[in-house]
Design a protein that fits this description.
The complex is a heterodimer.
Chain A lengths: L13 H7 L1 H20 L13 H10 L2 H22 L3 H10 L3 H4 L2 H35 L5 H5 L8 H12 L30 E12 L2 E13 L4 E6 L5 H9 L5 E6 L2 E2 L4 H4 L3 E4 L11 H12 L6 H14 L15 H13 L5 E5 L7 H16 L3 E5 L12 E7 L5 E8 H8 L4 H8 L10 H28 L1
Parallel strand pairs in A: 2-10, 3-8, 3-9, 6-7, 7-8
Antiparallel strand pairs in A: 1-2, 1-4, 4-5, 9-10
Helix pairs in contact in A: 2-9, 3-4, 4-7, 12-13, 12-14
Chain B lengths: L9 H4 L10 H18 L5 H16 L7 H23 L7 H9 L4 H29 L14 H26 L3 H17 L9 H6 L4 H12 L9 H8 L10 H11 L3 H10 L10 H26 L8
Helix pairs in contact in B: 2-6, 3-4, 3-6, 4-6, 4-7, 4-8, 4-10, 6-7, 6-14, 7-10, 7-14, 10-14
The chains are: A alpha/beta, B mainly alpha.
Chain lengths: ~500, ~325
């Protein structure tokens, strides 16, 4: 076998370590400095984060809107370090001696040699994955700076041994004044003013006071909802209107307590968040998809739903009676022995609603119950919901085709994305007044006015959010004046 | 003290804190009902005939020498472990991930994740038991010579059944855990072959491993299943036939006008020492890990049971976060 030599780094001082890794340090600083200037150009707060390991990549991800790619890149880098650490546990000195003295391949392939080969194979696989993610990130950078994609070739030059070229490009782009990141307008503007109002507490109804709902995505925090205050009296059927991404489902999840917000939600005088374990049985949420097991019969599905949602101290006969009553009222009696998989779209939807209705909840929420249903079936379904509301329940419905059934609703909640892309309340009140407020004669017209321009809308969401907040502020001041006058009298 | 609810209308008049809902134990029964209905209405029952087909194939290929000689036993028990792992993996790899959205809905409506997993554990135990019975019956039908001496229970067949059951069930729980961790059936089916290859390569018996790789074998279900099978099959006391077979292939080799291998073989056969030679040969290939003792088998069973509990706990831990699933 040929002579093989290898340099093994022994323990040394920090100075020695720095000297050994000086090139790595220079590359790191070039990349960070480049990113620092990029963040400054983008007017991102705390641009010094560009120098913090790990965090700098998360900042880059946010800047170029490729957070997930940057996160995966970081995980892959960590994996590569683990592989390097494993390689470090191998006694390379004695391994090389074995290689030099061995006469056959079998003698060379000791367990250490095999581990080394395994690590090399693993490192190659991870390096390949890193390259793919580096290309994705570089594509994001080019797209943010509106530069040609051919820059990527320069950025990935040196893979997998050095990030020097990438760092150099980052530094040049950061320093050169003509290289400016193009970010959507909303990232630099301020959101609409807050109403500062609190909804009046209703003894029997639903009172929603949401300050904000934040979502954490790694180190990045995003505000999904803000400043939503409203009270819905019992017996009301309310339409929840909003464009795509306006936060309708997030709002409903916050109201039901599934994903709590910084808020106070009161239902019938009880705090849903504080008494969640009890209150969850008083809230029925019908999801958009019909989430049921297709291999069960209608009767078994409803009976199991009853067993889970109705109190255990209710006797079996009463429970059975309730199941039969709900089957009849939803027109499912004839289908009770049919498998769920065999039901039509409308029948499935009715069963899905019946599963939540079985416990007779005070608050009944439905996420697009009419999706996939024809006009006649949908109308019948909404009439059923109206009947439920008339029994003294609160029914909140999301639908994308509200105008065909608008006569059945009492009120409308309009959610819209403000310039911060945060879900805000643009209006809550009676249907008729909603038309006057937005200057439109249909719900679809309202939706069109608040939708973003790139979605084909008029892009007036921020205007209406601000207007409604002003209206609430004015009401608040008026109420406060009335209160003072009353106290003086 | 909770109030009695005689009719549905009473619920509205009783304070909410006096109402009691189904506890974990009762929820297990509800979900067991669902799962057994699935066994009938869906295709779950098909795992039993599938187990029979796989067992039949393996017995046809490796059954003749199983528990008769060292080589046949190692190969056969490895194949048996493969059957168990295959059956276990296929029983549950998709059961949770395919209904994640349903579980999320039900969790929000009051379902306890521990009850859901416990119901699955009971149901999967039923499937594994069925597969164990089917596999053993097929082996008997195909005249596989099972060991006659029992090490633990007094019945060699029962010992074997317990090992098959525990190996299948531990694999089943590993696959249930995987199903609870991943979010789609596509991911589950992508991960499964990797898990399977890992189990087979690191079974520690069929492939020779050293150092760290040898230590990793302790983490596989396959190793403890294979060890228990070999211990029960009295592996270390079985003859080794490789040498005799090789000599037989070399008997016509000529050396300076003579046939030394043939001469030696004739001599051994005439003195009736063929069996003794095979046993002597086996002595040099014994593996202390496969020691045929009650302690060894019990140790393997205990490890498999620990795996089962560990996998179930991990499944519960991961599924508790199901509410964080995005739409």
């Amino acid at each position: 076998m040929g002579e093989v030599t290898v340099q093994v780094a022994g323990p040394g001082s920090i100075g020695e370590f720095i000297v050994n890794h000086i090139s790595d340090f220079v590359v790191y600083m070039m990349f960070s400095a480049g990113m620092f200037f990029m963040l400054q150009k983008a007017k991102v707060k705390k641009p010094w984060r560009a120098f913090v390991p790990v965090v700098r990549f998360l900042c880059l991800g946010k800047l170029i809107r490729r957070e997930k790619d940057c996160r995966v890149y970081l995980w892959l880098t960590l994996l590569l370090y683990v592989i390097f650490y494993l390689t470090g546990t191998i006694d390379l000195q004695s391994l090389m001696e074995t290689v030099n003295t061995a006469e056959t391949t079998e003698e060379v392939l000791t367990s250490d040699a095999r581990l080394l080969l395994f690590c090399v194979a693993g490192a190659m696989a991870v390096a390949l994955a890193l390259l793919i993610y580096q290309i994705r990130i570089c594509l994001g950078i080019c797209s943010t700076f509106k530069r040609r994609k051919r820059w990527i070739l320069l950025m990935i030059l040196g893979w997998p041994f050095s990030e020097f070229c990438w760092s150099l490009v980052m530094l040049i782009w950061g320093l050169k004044k003509s290289f400016v990141p193009y970010l959507p307008e909303e990232d630099t503007e301020e959101g609409a003013a807050l109403s500062g109002a609190e909804a009046r507490l209703l003894a029997d109804g639903l009172t929603v006071n949401i300050k904000e709902r934040l979502a954490k995505d790694g180190f990045h925090e995003k505000r999904l909802l803000r400043d939503i205050h409203l009270s819905i009296p019992k017996g009301h059927m309310v339409l929840l209107l909003g464009g795509s991404g306006a936060g309708k489902t997030t709002f409903l999840n916050a109201v039901t307590g599934y994903e709590p917000a910084d808020a106070k939600i009161m239902l019938g005088g009880k705090d849903i968040y504080k008494e969640y374990e009890l209150m969850k049985y008083d809230v029925g949420f019908v999801p958009q998809q019909d989430l049921m097991r297709g291999n069960d019969t209608v009767l078994r599905t409803l009976s199991d739903a009853a067993a889970m949602r109705l109190p255990d101290n209710m006797n079996a006969r009463a429970r059975k009676k309730r199941v039969q009553h709900v089957l009849e009222s939803f027109g499912l009696s004839m289908l009770q022995d049919t498998l769920v998989d065999k039901l039509s779209g409308g029948q499935r939807k009715r069963l899905s609603i019946a599963m939540e209705f079985i416990s007779d909840p005070s608050l009944f929420i439905l996420d697009e119950p009419d999706s996939g249903l024809d006009g006649v079936v949908a109308r019948g379904l909404f009439e059923k919901l109206r009947a439920i509301a008339d029994e003294g329940k609160i029914v909140v419905v999301i639908t994308h085709t509200p105008d065909r059934v608008i006569d059945l609703f009492d009120d409308v909640i309009v959610l819209a994305k403000d310039v911060d892309r945060t879900g805000r309340l643009a209006y809550y009140g009676p249907i008729k007044e909603a038309g006057e407020f937005f200057g439109k004669d249909s719900m679809e017209g309202i939706l069109l006015s608040i939708n973003q321009k790139e979605e084909g809308g008029e892009g007036r969401a921020n205007e209406f959010v601000a207007l409604y907040a002003q209206q609430l502020q004015a009401e608040k001041t008026e109420n406060a004046d009335d209160g003072k006058a009353g106290a003086a009298e | 003290m909770s109030a009695k609810v005689k009719s549905f209308e009473d619920i509205r008049n009783i304070p909410k804190d006096e109402l009691r809902y189904k506890g974990r134990g009762q929820q297990i029964l509800i979900y067991l009902g669902k799962l057994f209905r699935m066994f009938v209405f869906q295709s779950d029952w098909k795992v039993l005939p599938m187990a029979a087909v796989i067992a039949g194939l393996v017995c046809y290929v490796v059954g003749a020498n199983l528990f008769k000689n060292m080589e046949g036993t190692l190969l056969g028990t490895f194949a048996m472990s493969c059957i168990c792992i295959w059956n276990g993996f296929f029983n549950s790899i998709q059961v949770i991930c395919r209904e994640r959205a349903i579980i999320k809905r039900e969790h929000r409506a009051g379902m306890h994740i521990s009850s859901y997993i416990a119901a699955h554990m009971i149901y999967q135990a039923f499937l594994c038991l069925g597969q164990t019975v089917v596999t053993l019956s097929v082996c008997r039908l195909m005249k596989v010579a099972f060991p006659t001496n029992s090490l633990v229970t007094g019945s060699a067949m029962l010992d074997m059944a317990i090992t098959i059951f525990l190996t299948t069930y531990a694999s089943d729980m590993m696959s249930l855990m995987t199903s609870a961790i991943v979010r789609s059936t596509t991911t589950a089916m992508t991960v499964m072959p990797f898990l399977m290859i890992f189990q087979l390569v690191f079974s520690g018996g069929f492939f020779s491993l050293e150092g760290t790789a040898q230590k990793i074998t302790n983490l596989t279900v396959a190793k403890w299943g294979l060890t228990a099978f070999c211990a029960q099959g009295n592996y270390n006391d079985l003859p080794m036939v490789s040498l005799w077979k090789t000599m037989n292939q070399m008997k016509n080799v000529e050396y300076e006008g003579m046939y030394p291998v043939k001469t030696a073989m004739d001599l051994i056969e005439q003195s009736g020492g063929q069996e003794q030679l095979m046993l002597e040969c086996a002595k040099y290939n014994q593996n202390p890990k496969y020691e045929s003792s009650m302690d060894n088998v019990l140790n393997c069973w205990l490890r498999l049971i620990l795996f089962i509990v560990l996998f179930a706990c991990i499944a519960v831990g991961f599924l508790e976060y199901i509410d964080k699933d995005k739409r």
